[in-house]
Design goal:
Elements (H helix, E strand, L loop, with lengths): L11 H16 L4 E6 L6 H15 L8 E7 L3 H15 L9 H14 L6 E7 L13 E6 L10 E5 L6 H11 L12 H9 L4 H9 L5 H10 L9 H17 L3 H9 L8 E2 H8 L3 H13 L4 E3 L5 E3 L2 H7 L9 H19 L11 H13 L3 H9 L1 H11 L3 H16 L5 H13 L1 H4 L6 H8 L4 H14 L6 E7 L11 E3 L11 E2 L8 E7 L5 E7 L5 E7 L5 E5 L5 E9 L4 E9 L4 E8 L2 E3 L4 E6 L8 E7 L4 E8 L2 E10 L6 E5 L4 E7 L19 E7 L4 E8 L2 E5 L2 E4 L7 E2 L2 E6 L3 E7 L2 E6 L11 H4 L3 E3 L10 E7 L5 E7 L9 E8 L2 E9 L3 E4 L5 E5 L4 E5 L8 E2 L15 H4 L8 E11 L2 E10 L2 E8 L8 E5 L6 E3 L6 E7 L4 E7 L10 E8 L6 E10 L4 E10 L2 E10 L5 E2 L7 E2 L11 E4 ...
Parallel strand pairs: 1-4, 1-5, 2-3, 3-4, 18-23
Antiparallel strand pairs: 6-8, 7-8, 9-72, 10-41, 11-12, 12-13, 13-14, 15-16, 16-17, 17-18, 18-19, 20-21, 21-22, 22-23, 24-25, 25-26, 26-27, 28-29, 28-30, 31-32, 32-33, 33-34, 35-36, 36-37, 37-38, 38-42, 39-40, 40-41, 43-44, 44-45, 45-46, 47-48, 48-49, 49-50, 51-52, 52-53, 53-54, 53-55, 56-57, 57-58, ...
Helix pairs in contact: 1-2, 3-4, 5-7, 6-8, 7-9, 11-14, 14-15, 15-18, 18-19, 21-22
Length: 1292
């Protein structure tokens, strides 16, 4: 606390005694525990503040580890437990879960020992209960204050007795400071003044109160003498406390009766900083009325009022104790406390009309409202507050975490349980929902209330309350809710037990985690701080708050790691371009933010230590952090320990003739595993042939304690796969390299061998390298992973093993997918074999929390925690056939279960539309040689439940369209294309449905034809078919229009395919855009190295379809008026073919014979040239339709969308869900697969309307209804109907 000299005196003798003890503790290697004791109001707290500030600032004592102040007071053991938990969190501990004081004391003690915080000064203010002192012994460097001597305990305390009775001069000095300057009454030598000082026990607090009385005459001083009882010869602390209370009473009596009543009401507040807003709410006055009253109280030393920056009040704990004494003798202290708290809750309620979120922003209000409601035993108010989701959302936004709200919910749950109120279970549901979805609740620009509407899909009461609160707020943004969620359980959608928000860290590389066994759980990551520096962020796992930052004076750091105790971090920088690795490793102490130095000898410090790799030992050994390094030339291994602020070499070294590639700690840090290849390789993983090539990968295991090699073995560094068997490679042709090795040692010792796209478990019992040359023996020792984990273009990126060796996590990545196609497989391991697995989607990184079976999955949105031992997880059993003959024979059933309704039924295609504003899905199913079309009402709101129509022939695609009463069926093969219309498909009687063939085409044998899209144009009842054909490396485009009334078709002859070809090797898919009037195709001409686009204007039987070709400098104007589009192909600044820094358009060279040149203004060119530098793709296409335009890449992903007033940019994580949604009238949607959220923009302004969290399944498409009040999101297996909230239908 601040102690300004203008308000407090310095008591030299008392302060010097405290400073002497502090110096003694600082100089002693074992520290010391100081106790400053004296009666209440004797100035202990102020003297300790002044003394600590003096020795830390002026003498640099305790500066390295700092000081931490904790208020204790007269509290129960349960309250002390909560205080110590808060203290633990301040220290950086995350594992603070404890049920008793002994447990939390032991955890803090261990944390201080492990983190070398023995010299951190702990200050415990105002200890009342002597028995509680034993729970504050976790530090030997502390200073405590107490009203009691605490002599009965056996602790070796360094005692300082407060000089309870001020010297007369000191007492007069305090009175002089506190009274008005214009009072001329002489204090020194005045017997009346002397008597008052003596009767008040010469206590500093009493003197401050006396000074505030502004006594001006002898009569005034005599009145004080008459009130205060003459102390006995042996006065007790109680006597002086009573006299002190009498001085409080004297000062209060001088106040106006109304002001005195208001002041007494302040006893309801906690002994913390009280905001001015809470006081005005309690007093039911305006701020201008409250300030003069508070200033008067401050002048009388009844409280401290700060009105400059923080605008708050502070009450002495003795004053709060006095104010909590009931005036009415008929009331007990407990009854009076309930009355005070009821008055406060009533005042808060009146301030906001009991709409709790309407209360002005006030830190005290949002932090302690639940506490006061519980103290008031206001059951109705408690439930009103907790049911006011707007209040909760405001609290989340102010705190920037859900942690504090969850703590409030836990208090409410405990209160309701104790009072046997039945509905406590629903608040437990809410607490669990918040705990599991924190990243969604804290999304930037997101609305927490909207997040609740999306996340509480299956909790009706939460959803209903969220709807009611949304109605109350009625902001300008629309709210959306889930109307139906179908098939979400069809895949292994596993909900995490916790979801942590690390988005604010903006982590662009891997994060590291400490070990909770050593008293804390911390995450560490880094982000770019500015153009020069990187910033390392340390986050508290439990609260999701950034607890510290370290700015690193370099860019592009990597290989971030944290010690198990969370005190030290390491990272690498200074890239070796030749070897593409980092050489300069740095180790930092998080607590003092100091860089650690490697000490080769006792006094020889290495400023720059070039090493190839560094790993912290996962085990704390003899209270020291141990680490191991690989030298710069990769041929030496050294073991080090951190002692103090130095890293000391401990004379343990390994030298090899080969370059060590990897080093790992195994057996929980008791052994080290080294591995290297005896085959030298080039940058492209090609073998460098020597006179003698040995295809071996050497693995050695060393015991750390004895420093002896306990195992050495070899495996092939390169393998080839032939005839479903593994063989060691004999040369560098078509071989697969070993990427990583991991050790497993549970009941059976084995190795995880990861050969890029193949891997498995190798049993080490009776193992020999020659087994690889005997396939019959190898299959009994090597068990490959199931092949379904590899997928398409996936490779083994990383693996992790739980500490108990029971679970194995394999991370599969697809570099081309930006994380979209990453998969995490978790396997149960028993007897060295994989028994079962689960799948987790979109991971970037995975790790087990040390000492647990809890798996952390980092994705783009945050960090998810999974309890792998949860019995409710949907484990899939591996049936033994997966590893037959040494290679996986993957059974199609494993991952295609979601694509089937039964064993003999397969879903071929799905389509979605709105029929009479009802969301409808049709499915094309093949079952036992029969083709069936099923029709479902997704919301079950119509008479239609599910219809099945038997089809007369084979089909492979189906299409439905809004308010179109027919289904379009298509069967396409290399020899035949058939399009059929199923009329009246909503009829429940098959007799009313008709199957009419509307178009058939028999392509030439040399053609390979594929249908790209089929669209329905309602205005003229026309079906549009866009298809591609490949003929002798030529890509041909054909667009067919079919009149649904008369069946007339356009361009239905073979020669209607338009030539759109280039040299061999072009991309396979060239149609990138189809709507009711235009088809756009993309390609690249390798002869003249130019991007080539073709725009087809879709006609009908009167206006013929014809193409317009545009190259990358050409413009095309609209081909109509209202339905026209404009095209502009923009080379990216990153395109190697684009050499000019400016976009030049030569109008004179553009052929305008067809009148297609657009009126693109100069500012359009400047705008596109300005944004071009932000685009990463090589080529871009701008499409303008009316006032709207979009920029798309060759994959049809929208990167810029806007109008002539405003634009929005979208990075690679945003997906364009449906091409027809580019030109929506009201809303436009994009899906961010990184954050698992749907972003809704208003089309007219391109302002963000809402962010909808959607963790249920990956989204591949969207379908709006015509009013854009509802839409369907879907993928191959699941669908969800989301509708706009209609407040008129909400019933309270």
């Amino acid at each position: 606390p601040a102690t300004p000299e203008s308000a407090y005196i310095i008591r030299e003798k008392f302060n010097n005694a405290i400073c002497d003890k502090l110096r003694e503790v600082n100089q002693s290697s074992s520290g010391g525990r100081i106790l400053v004791h004296g009666m209440a109001g004797s100035g202990k707290t102020i003297a300790v503040c002044q003394s600590v500030r003096r020795v830390t600032i002026e003498e640099n004592c305790f500066r390295t580890y700092g000081c931490i102040w904790t208020k204790i007071g007269n509290i129960s053991d349960q309250d002390l437990l909560n205080v110590l938990k808060c203290l633990a969190i301040k220290l950086g501990m995350t594992n603070t879960e404890s049920n008793d004081l002994s447990q939390i004391n032991a955890k803090i003690t261990r944390f201080i020992q492990v983190n070398h915080l023995k010299k951190k000064l702990f200050i415990f203010d105002d200890i009342w209960n002597e028995e509680q002192l034993q729970y504050l012994n976790f530090s030997n460097t502390s200073i405590s204050t107490s009203r009691f001597d605490l002599t009965r305990n056996s602790y070796n305390l360094l005692r300082v007795s407060a000089v309870e009775k001020l010297a007369v001069d000191e007492a007069i000095q305090i009175i002089q400071i506190r009274r008005h300057d214009d009072i001329q009454y002489v204090l020194k030598g005045n017997q009346l003044v002397q008597d008052v000082i003596d009767r008040c026990g010469r206590l500093p607090l009493a003197m401050a109160i006396i000074g505030g009385l502004n006594l001006k005459s002898d009569d005034d001083w005599q009145d004080v003498i008459d009130v205060i009882v003459t102390p006995k010869s042996e006065s007790t602390a109680h006597d002086y406390r009573e006299n002190l209370f009498q001085t409080f009473e004297l000062s209060i009596k001088q106040l106006k009766p109304k002001h005195a009543e208001l002041f007494r009401s302040l006893g309801v507040f906690k002994a913390v900083n009280i905001s001015l807003q809470s006081i005005t709410s309690l007093w039911q006055v305006k701020e201008l009325e409250a300030k003069p009253i508070l200033e008067e109280l401050n002048s009388r030393s009844l409280l401290t009022f700060e009105d400059k920056n923080r605008r708050l009040c502070i009450l002495h704990d003795l004053m709060i104790e006095y104010l909590r004494q009931p005036i009415d003798d008929k009331l007990s202290v407990e009854q009076y406390s309930i009355e005070l708290n009821k008055n406060l809750i009533e005042a808060y309620g009146n301030q906001c009309q009991r709409k709790w979120f309407f209360h002005p922003q006030d830190d005290y209000y949002y932090e302690y409202l639940i506490f006061h409601a519980i103290q008031a035993k206001e059951n109705d108010s408690i439930q009103q507050i907790i049911n006011d989701f707007n209040w909760m959302m405001r609290k989340i936004q102010l705190d920037n975490t859900t942690y504090n709200l969850r703590m409030d919910l836990e208090k409410v749950i405990d209160y309701l349980k104790d009072n046997e109120i039945e509905n406590w279970q629903q608040y437990q549901q809410l607490e669990q929902l918040l705990n599991g979805n924190e990243p969604f609740m804290l999304m930037e620009r997101g609305d927490p209330l909207q997040a609740l509407l999306m996340l509480a899909e299956d909790i009706d009461w939460i959803k209903q309350r969220a709807l009611e609160c949304a109605k109350e707020t009625r902001n300008s943004n629309a709210y959306w809710k889930i109307a139906a969620l179908n098939g979400a359980a069809a895949i292994s959608l596993i909900e995490p037990i916790k979801r942590k928000n690390i988005g604010k860290m903006r982590v662009c590389a891997e994060v590291a985690i400490s070990n909770p066994c050593y008293g804390q759980l911390r995450l560490v990551g880094f982000r770019s701080y500015n153009d020069v520096n990187d910033e390392i962020m340390i986050m508290d796992y439990k609260t999701s708050k950034i607890v510290d930052k370290i700015i690193v004076p370099d860019r592009y750091i990597s290989n971030l790691a944290i010690s198990p105790d969370g005190q030290f971090i390491s990272f690498a920088k200074d890239v070796d371009i030749e070897r593409l690795c980092y050489l300069n490793y740095n180790v930092y102490n998080i607590y003092n933010k100091e860089k650690m130095y490697f000490m080769v000898k006792k006094y020889q410090k290495l400023v720059k230590r070039n090493i190839y790799a560094l790993k912290f030992c996962p085990l704390i050994r003899d209270n020291n952090v141990v680490l191991v390094t690989i030298s710069e030339n990769q041929k030496k291994v050294k073991v080090w320990k951190i002692d103090g602020n130095k890293i000391h070499y401990i004379n343990k070294k390994i030298s090899t003739n080969h370059k060590i590639e990897k080093i790992d700690w195994i057996k929980n840090g008791t052994q080290i595993m080294l591995s290297w290849s005896t085959c030298e390789m080039s940058y492209y993983n090609k073998l460098i042939k020597t006179n003698k090539w040995i295809n071996e990968y050497q693995i050695q295991i060393w015991d750390l304690e004895s420093w002896q090699r306990v195992k050495s073995l070899q495996v092939p560094a390169y393998i080839v796969i032939a005839r479903n068997q593994f063989f060691p490679a004999r040369d560098d042709s078509d071989c697969i390299r070993l990427l990583s090795v991991h050790h497993i040692n549970s009941n059976i010792e084995c190795l995880m061998l990861n050969y890029c796209k193949k891997g498995g478990l190798l049993m080490l019992e009776n193992y020999d390298l020659q087994l690889w040359y005997d396939q019959d023996k190898l299959k009994n020792n090597f068990y490959p992973y199931p092949s379904f984990i590899y997928g398409e273009n996936l490779y083994i990126s990383d693996t992790a093993v739980s500490d108990d060796q029971q679970f194995l996590a394999i991370l599969m990545k697809d570099l081309a997918g930006f994380g979209k196609n990453h998969n995490q497989y978790v396997f149960k391991v028993a007897n060295g074999q994989l028994q079962a697995y689960i799948t987790l989607r979109y991971p970037l990184q995975s790790m087990f929390i040390p000492g647990t079976n809890r798996l952390l999955i980092r994705d783009f949105n945050g960090l998810d925690e999974y309890d792998i031992q949860d019995h409710n997880l949907p484990w899939k059993i591996l049936n033994g056939d997966e590893n037959e003959n040494g290679i996986d024979k993957y059974c199609n059933k494993i991952d295609s279960d979601t694509d089937k309704n039964s064993d003999n039924e397969r879903i071929l295609d799905r389509s979605y539309a709105y029929i009479d504003n009802n969301p409808v899905r049709v499915q094309l199913i093949h079952k036992e040689n029969t083709y069936i079309l099923t029709v479902d009402d997704l919301q079950r709101q119509s008479n239609l439940t599910q219809l099945d129509h038997i089809l007369d022939q084979e089909y492979d695609r189906c299409y439905i369209y809004d308010d179109f009463q027919s289904v379009i069926l298509m069967q396409a093969s290399s020899t035949n294309i058939i399009i059929t219309k199923l009329v009246n498909f909503l009829s429940q009687d098959d007799k009313n449905t008709q199957q009419r063939k509307i178009w058939q085409h028999n392509p030439c044998d040399s053609y390979h034809v594929s249908i790209k899209d089929i669209r329905y144009r309602k205005i003229d009842d026309t079906l549009i078919v866009a298809m591609e054909a490949i003929v002798k490396e030529k890509h041909l485009i054909r667009v067919v229009t079919i009149n649904m009334c008369n069946g007339h078709t356009e361009n239905n002859t073979d020669n209607s395919f338009h030539d759109f070809s280039w040299a061999s090797g072009g991309i396979s898919s060239i149609i990138i855009y189809v709507d009711e009037y235009y088809v756009i195709a993309y390609g690249y001409d390798r002869l003249d190295h130019q991007c080539k686009f073709t725009c087809y204007r879709i006609g009908n039987d009167k206006i013929q379809t014809h193409p317009i070709q545009i190259r990358h400098k050409y413009l095309c104007d609209d081909f109509g008026k209202e339905k026209g589009i404009k095209l502009l192909v923009i080379p990216s600044a990153h395109d190697p073919q684009f050499k000019s820094p400016q976009l030049h358009i030569d109008h004179e060279k553009i052929n305008d014979e067809q009148g297609v040149i657009g009126n693109w203004r100069r500012k359009d060119h400047q705008f596109f040239d300005k944004i071009r530098k932000h685009l990463l793709s090589t080529r871009w296409l701008a499409i303008e339709k009316g006032k709207e335009f979009v920029l798309i890449d060759e994959y049809m992903n929208v990167k810029v969308k806007g109008n002539n007033k405003v634009v929005q940019f979208f990075n690679y994580s945003y997906e364009t869900l449906e091409k027809q949604n580019l030109w929506c009238n009201k809303f436009w949607i994009t899906n961010n697969y990184r954050s698992k959220s749907i972003y809704i923009y208003e089309t007219a302004t391109m302002q963000l309307n809402q962010i909808l969290p959607f963790p249920y399944f990956p989204i591949s498409g969207i379908k709006w209804n015509q009013q854009q009040s509802s839409f369907i999101v879907f993928n191959g297996y699941q669908n969800c109907v989301i509708e706009q909230v209609s407040f008129d239908t909400i019933i309270k």
